[in-house]
Design brief:
- This protein is mainly β.
- The chain has a single domain, classed as Immunoglobulin-like (Sandwich), CATH 2.60.40.2550.
- Helix content is 14%, strand content 50%.
- The chain contains 1 helix and 8 strands.
- The protein has a 5-stranded mixed beta sheet, with no helix packed on it.
- β4 and β5 form a beta hairpin.
Length: 125
């Protein structure tokens, strides 16, 4: 191998070594979403309260809460990267004891990615 070839090989090895030291660039993805419920057992009828939270480095476009497949709460997050808001929603009567009512929070970021978290509350007598 010639001297020029050895130098080129050495330079390539040095560059690949330096590339390994660089921090990995962030990849776009859906917002991180969480929901905190003040109680997990409810009556029918009752009121459910808690806190919604969404985080995304590009900014949150909107956040909404769905209770048993019916939209309950929606808000514009005003492009904040960390959004948090309390909620208060009514649970209608007619649910039998032991029934599970789904609670879902969904957030969309400015890139159009959607993150979702779901849980449920149980109806008690």
């Amino acid at each position: 191998m010639t001297r020029a070839g050895l130098r080129l090989l050495g330079a390539a090895c040095a560059l690949s070594g330096l590339a390994g030291c660089l921090a990995e660039r962030p990849r776009p993805g859906p917002p991180l979403v969480s929901i905190t419920l003040d109680k997990i057992r409810v009556r029918s009828p009752d009121t459910l309260t808690g806190t919604l939270r969404a985080q995304d480095p590009t900014g949150i476009d909107s956040v909404w809460l769905t209770l048993a497949f019916a939209p309950q709460f929606g808000t514009d997050a005003l492009m904040r990267t960390d959004f948090q808001a309390p909620f208060r929603t009514f649970i209608a009567g007619g649910h039998s004891p032991g029934a599970r009512i789904s609670v879902t929070v969904t957030a969309r970021d400015l890139d159009g990615f959607v993150g979702q978290r779901d849980t449920f509350v149980t109806v008690v007598p």
